[in-house]
Amino acid sequence: MISSQFRIAQITDLHLFAESDQCLLGMPTLRSLNAVIEQIQQLSPKPDILLLTGDLSQDGTIKSYQRLQALLSPLKIPTYWLPGNHDCIEAMERSLTQFYPDKAFERGGWRFLLLSSQDPGYVHGRLSAEGLTWLDQQLVQNPNIPTLVSLHHPPFAVNSIWLDTSSLQNNAELLEILDRASQVKLVVFGHIHQEFQRQRGNVTFLGTPSTCIQFARESDEFALGQETPGFRLIQLYQDGTWESQVKRVQFNYSLDLAATGY
């Protein structure tokens, strides 16, 4: 029997390294991820799935993905993933063997569609022609099931000049498809290392904080935010409604606030 409430924990922009003690602009990314995992372990009830929305690794190494799998597997929560601009898809496919590889699936009375917005060699995102066709076909074939779409890059500007240069470059093509699909209720993404929400028609677009460094909101130039690491909880209901909250963790760190990029 399908539960009337289906819970997702979205975890994004982990930026793990091959070596466990490496830091990203002063942030020990493995330690900050562990703080997030500890908070997820304390949730009651626990999430029904984990959704990892890209930049799981900073260096794209097999070792970093193996470490991630070793950390999350003891939770015994079904885990799905998609790549970000820092990720190596080949290494992910070779290493994340205990996670689900499915990019289209149904759980909790909802349909989930996971897109790769990685444009190899670039920081910005782009959906391939094949990916857009696949998305359109999936939506046409399943018009009556509430649907959540996920990708790494934001399909909207977030009013941050430096960050908006690396958003989804062909967002108009994505939005055109979504505008035709009344069953799509949510689009969730990462990349921007901050909380974000935008409404377009019947669809809510949600950006989620990183499990490590945060980016300052509405900044013209690269700047780090002072918020602590976090993740997003989403509750889905069979009637197509939903609720969501961003959860922050207590974590002490000393950032390189003079950094001009990473």
Structural account:
It is a single chain. With 262 residues, this protein is α/β, with parallel strands linked by helices. 22% of the residues lie in helices and 24% in strands. It has six helices and 13 strands. The chain has helices at 29-41, 62-72, 89-95, 129-141, 161-164, 171-179; strands at 5-11, 23-24, 27-28, 49-53, 79-82, 104-107, 110-114, 147-150, 184-189, 196-200, 203-207, 230-237, 242-248. Strands 6-7-8-9-11-10 form a six-stranded mixed sheet, with helices on one face. It has a five-stranded mixed sheet with strand order 5-4-1-12-13, with no helix packed on it. A hairpin with a 2-residue loop joins strand 2 and strand 3 (27-28). Helix 2 (62-72) crosses helix 3. The model has no long low-confidence stretch (mean pLDDT 95).
